[in-house]
């Protein structure tokens, strides 16, 4: 049986470190969380982010806009939060309703408050090695590797999924850690031939049990970012956990693997935003 990578425990430790830093220094960081519409998954994520703020000693303020909110309304809210010195981080939960241009919204968030590391300036800084916020989901996976003593240097990391939130920034972080990186996606030919070569597989497809045991190399490290609700109402990862658990060396469970880490890094980034804006450290 592979070693289970316990994202809940690592996430709790990261949040506790954030809390201690805030308490020891009398800091007062604040995260503004924007949600537009009533997507049930987004509601769950936003509630979890607010809960994590409480645990970490970060003040959070929610701004809930209706499903039919206009782009102008959302951009005006972001302008107001950009200008508010009491707000250190701004998170706009994605996806947004179709009438709103996501790229324009992300671009409007002040780079110093962009705790998701989504806007172009911060993404550029990420790829050039300039200091910036850490992209939450990918940096969370790197924290998991570090926590379990897994060094990506020289390893072949195969990332399946090329989203701006996971696949692309994960490629940047893995390159920075000296891995050899291959990014695959829905148009990749003979995907299995590539995933079979992965020492570290990052699965970010969003399809229940997309990866069967024959697609995976013996002894691989599996980071499963996928999370899909099955017809039985249970949550499933992209990787067929039961089929691969005796073949691989490390694997993240779903839920409780990569998911909790996204939020932990968000807490770290909010504290960092506060420190940068207040001229601390
Ligand atoms: N939607 C899915 N993941 C994320 C995330 O990490 N941040 C935001 N803002 N929206 C998301």
Structural account:
- By secondary structure, the chain is of the alpha/beta class.
- The protein has two domains: 25-110, Rossmann fold (3-Layer(aba) Sandwich), CATH 3.40.50.10860; 136-259, NAD(P)-binding Rossmann-like Domain (Rossmann fold, 3-Layer(aba) Sandwich).
- The chain is 41% helix and 16% strand.
- The protein has a six-stranded parallel sheet. A three-stranded parallel sheet has the order 3-2-4, sandwiched between helices.
- α1 (7-25) packs parallel to α10.
- The longest helix is centred in the last third of the chain and has 20 residues, at 259-278.
- It is globular and about 55 Å long.
- The termini are far apart.
- The mean pLDDT is 98.
SSE arrangement:
Elements: E1 3-4, H1 7-25, E2 30-36, H2 40-56, E3 59-65, H3 71-83, E4 89-92, H4 102-108, H5 120-128, H6 136-147, E5 156-160, H7 167-176, E6 180-184, H8 191-195, E7 200-203, E8 221-224, E9 228-229, E10 235-236, H9 241-244, E11 250-251, H10 259-278
Parallel strand pairs: 1-11, 2-3, 2-4, 5-6, 5-7, 7-8, 8-11
Antiparallel strand pairs: 9-10
Guanine is lined by residues 91-94, 116, 136-137, 165, 262.
């Amino acid at each position: 049986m592979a070693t289970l990578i316990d994202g809940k425990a690592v996430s709790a430790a990261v949040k506790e470190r954030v809390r201690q830093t805030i308490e020891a220094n009398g800091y007062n960081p604040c995260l503004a969380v924007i949600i537009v519409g009533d997507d049930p998954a987004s509601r769950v994520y936003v509630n979890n982010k607010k809960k994590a703020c409480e645990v970490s000693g970060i003040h959070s303020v929610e701004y809930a806009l209706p499903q039919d909110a206009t782009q102008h309304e959302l951009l005006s809210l972001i302008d107001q939060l950009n200008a508010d010195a009491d707000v250190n981080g701004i998170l706009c939960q994605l996806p947004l309703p179709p009438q709103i241009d996501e790229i324009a919204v992300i671009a409007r968030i002040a780079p110093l408050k962009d705790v998701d590391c989504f806007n172009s300036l911060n993404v550029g800084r990420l790829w050039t090695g300039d200091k910036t916020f850490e992209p939450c989901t990918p940096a969370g996976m790197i924290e998991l590797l570090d926590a379990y003593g897994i060094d990506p240097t020289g390893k072949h990391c195969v990332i399946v999924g090329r989203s701006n939130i996971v696949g692309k920034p994960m490629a940047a972080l893995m390159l920075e850690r000296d891995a050899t990186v291959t990014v695959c996606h829905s148009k990749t030919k003979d995907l299995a031939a590539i995933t079979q070569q992965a020492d570290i597989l990052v699965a970010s497809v969003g399809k229940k049990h997309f990866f069967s045991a024959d697609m995976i190399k013996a002894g691989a490290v599996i980071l499963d970012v996928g999370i899909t609700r099955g017809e039985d109402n249970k949550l499933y990862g992209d990787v067929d956990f039961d089929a691969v658990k005796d073949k691989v060396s490390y694997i993240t469970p779903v839920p409780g693997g990569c998911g909790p880490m996204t939020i932990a890094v968000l807490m770290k980034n909010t504290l960092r935003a506060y420190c940068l804006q207040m001229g601390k450290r």
